[in-house]
Amino acid sequence: SCSYQRFASCYRCFYKVQPQLTRSIYDQFISQLQSSIKEEIHEIKNEGNLEGLFNSLDKIVEEAKDREEPAWRPSGIPEEDVRSALVPYLLKHRSYLRKVLGEKEEENRKVAKSVLAGRDRIAELQQLIQGRKQAWQ
């Protein structure tokens, strides 16, 4: 689409009068267009930190080469995709909660045992006090 013939056909009148000058203008135009495009690409690359992002993407690709299992791909059914991502997390969380619950129940059993022992000691002391009170009277 940027051929010299096409450029010359757009400026036919000028080309007929001075074909060499038309060629020179075309060459300058293409040169400036290429440098402008390169400059724009360089600015976009710097603004978006694309070089760093491309390097990290290369690193991810290199790491993925060592994997045996295939990468996860969406199935196209959002419910199943969400379920496949959430279920392992929720199962792990449930396991953690069950562990914490077991620890708390064990702690509660120890505290309940301690409370019962305290009540028994109080009952013994009350009986001892009652016995001494009757003995004194």
UniProtKB/TrEMBL annotation:
Main localisation, per the record?
nucleus
Q: What positions belong to coiled-coil segments?
A: none
A GO CC term attached to the entry: nucleus
Subcellular location(s): the record lists: Chromosome, Centromere, Kinetochore; Nucleus
Q: What's the domain of life for this entry?
A: Eukaryota
PANTHER family attached to this UniProt entry = POLYAMINE-MODULATED FACTOR 1
Q: What is this protein called?
A: Polyamine-modulated factor 1
Which organism is this entry from? Answer: Manacus vitellinus (golden-collared manakin)
